[in-house]
Design brief:
It contains 13 helices and twelve strands. The chain is of the alpha/beta class and 322 residues long. It has two domains: 53 residues, no CATH class; 212 residues, P-loop containing nucleotide triphosphate hydrolases (Rossmann fold, 3-Layer(aba) Sandwich). A hairpin with a 4-residue loop joins strand 10 and strand 11. The chain is globular.
Length: 322
């Protein structure tokens, strides 16, 4: 494996620094650290060490430590498209304009998680998950403060709730799931936030630190949930409108096409210039995948089904540019 460059080491060291600050509830987590601070705190050495470790080695170590998943086989294409270990440890983020294929891609991710026995809750306000979904159980959420039964994977349809009720419901759900895991629930659980900008607006995490109970349940789940076998994924067409904390926490990101100026400028903070310039040229189903120091363009193959005269997504990854 090639030695990581100085820029890659410093960039990842900053991500480690931001993640530690967010987990500790530091209101200044989004301030850029100085190079000396990264060096003295051991972040540079940690970043270099982690970047030197191959994805294949980490996957082998992870599967050997989880006996329930010993019989699961992953193909090379699947690993390129979606690193399950990374998703369980740090989450995933999917961004892009309407009709770029975000939800289709996310449904494949959820299918892989379900195959590993992970319980998945999809928080959906768009009803996009009510059809052609790997999860069949749909729970209609009509009031944020009603009691619901959380048994098994399900889609939580929040389309009938107002904006404020959505925020309250999401926070209460995250608090309930987080607390149950802290006090003994050991089942791996994953939350997918569809249209995340509608209930995780920019600045909401900082507000939760300063003013208790705004989104404290979401903050705990996102920043330290991985310690209790809870993961999360974000889907949004407006990344610049989503709070920075969860986006920074996700070290596996997928950027679909977009031409909105604020979103392009926001994404430039994550991608090198030569990659961010490709955002406007992506086709439907194509994404710039950034997983730590690995960046490439991937897409889902879409074979034609002659019997039904329609295009069928097979979810096999084709690398366009690496």
């Amino acid at each position: 494996m090639a030695t990581p460059t100085r820029t890659e080491i410093e960039t990842y060291a900053k991500e480690l620094w931001h993640r530690d600050r967010a987990r500790s509830g530091d209101p200044g987590f989004d301030v850029e650290p100085e190079l000396n601070e990264l060096r003295e705190g051991g972040y540079l050495s940690s970043a270099r060490s982690e970047l030197m470790t191959s994805i294949e080695t980490k996957n082998a170590q992870w599967f050997s430590q989880h006996k329930n998943f010993e019989e699961i086989e992953t193909s090379t294409d699947s690993t390129v498209l979606f690193d399950v270990q990374e998703a369980l440890n740090t989450g995933f983020a999917l961004t892009g304009a309407k009709q770029c294929g975000k939800t289709t891609m996310a449904k494949h991710f959820v299918r892989e998680l379900l195959g590993l026995g992970v319980i998945v809750y999809v928080l959906d306000v768009s009803q996009a998950w009510n059809h052609d979904s790997p999860i069949t159980k749909i729970t209609q959420i009509t009031k944020h403060n009603e009691e619901y039964e959380w048994k098994g994977s399900q889609i939580l349809d929040m389309s009938s709730l107002g904006i404020r009720e959505r925020v309250l419901f999401v926070n209460e759900l995250c608090r309930e799931i987080y607390d149950s895991h802290v006090y003994g629930d050991s089942e791996r659980t994953f939350l997918v936030f569809e249209e995340a900008h509608t209930y995780l607006p920019n600045g909401c995490m900082r507000m939760s630190v300063r003013k208790k109970n705004v989104l404290d349940g979401v903050l705990d789940l996102i920043t330290v949930g991985a310690n209790y076998k809870i993961g999360f994924g974000l889907i949004t067409q407006f990344p610049a409108m989503v709070d920075k904390t969860p986006i920074k926490a996700c070290l596996q990101r997928y950027f679909g096409w977009t031409w909105e100026k604020n979103d392009v400028n926001y994404i430039k903070g994550f991608l090198p210039k030569e990659w961010s310039e490709k955002l406007r040229d992506l086709q439907r189903g194509q994404f710039i995948r950034q997983c730590r120091n690995d960046i490439r363009i991937v897409e889902n193959e879409k074979p034609f089904n002659e019997a039904k005269h329609e295009t069928v997504y097979s979810f096999k990854t084709r690398v366009i540019c690496a």
